[in-house]
Amino acid sequence: MKILIFGSRGMLGRDLAEAFSRDCDVLGADLPETDITRADVCLDRVGEFRPEVIVNAAALTRVDYCETHEAEAFRINGEGAGNLARAADASGALLVHYSTDYVFDGTKPGPYLEGDAPNPLSVYGKSKLLGEDRIRLYCPNHLILRISWLFGANGSNFIRKILDAAHQGGKLRVVADQEGSPTYAEDAAAHTRIMIGAKCRGTYHLTNQGACSWHQLAVAALKSAGMGGVAVDPVSSEDFRLPAPRPRNSVLANGRLKSEGLPLMRPWENAVEAYVRARFSP
Ligand SMILES: NC(=O)c1ccc[n+]([C@@H]2O[C@H](COP(=O)([O-])OP(=O)(O)OC[C@H]3O[C@@H](n4cnc5c(N)ncnc54)[C@H](OP(=O)(O)O)[C@@H]3O)[C@@H](O)[C@H]2O)c1
Question: Terminus-to-terminus CA distance in the chain, angstroms?
């Protein structure tokens, strides 16, 4: 199978390229040579390589930066996704795209299902929702995977920042009143393969199983790194103000995977332990 991965040098993109390279013909594309905001460039890349599957892991992911760079966020996360959708549709390829828990406002008392109404709070969330809408409009042959609280080997992420701060001996204060479902990039990449193989189409929630607060995630990561004795002060979102508002609850129920009898990703605690042991063991 021929697969063209946009955003192939990002945190998820690198794990996707590795996961598919085992038995597929993989071509990676990323900035600066491939800009998904250029419709002509998207069409050229797809036309030259003629993939059966196009994977879009490219995005502007700096949530607080997006808040003050709205036009740029909508151009990349919204219109860029639309450009890939049109290129995929014109070529007959399946488009696999990643979206986010931040399309939800966090007011639901329980985990979010795929059919729940989005209502993003932040510019980032709104721009990612536009990307979803463009894909549904332009490319019926799509698979949208909403992931959340991503961590992995190849990028800056919350767990890496916590472990770095603990090593530097700083005082750790972590938000305890936001709940979500961590997603290990390596697991999401492996699962993307499974879902393409199972001919999944439409929108799915794809996370490691279970839920936690950022505080619980920090404590678990420190414990896995043998630093369980490091104190982490729980703080509220009000005490830790950031430019972009975050949903209090963005736990994603993997409702469709369950109802369709598809395999689930391992519990988040096991994924965090595997990640920390593999990347941060002395
Ligand atoms: N990170 C999370 O916590 C999280 C949570 C939920 C969902 N997601 C979604 O998961 C996907 C992957 O996220 P990630 O954390 O792996 O992202 P990432 O590490 O920020 O990687 C994104 C990649 O896209 C590239 N890119 C940015 N603008 C582009 C453009 N105009 N044209 C082509 N490439 C462009 C980036 O290049 P530069 O580095 O040069 O800008 C980078 O290589 C995204 O769709 C994201 O929205 C992420």
Answer: 38
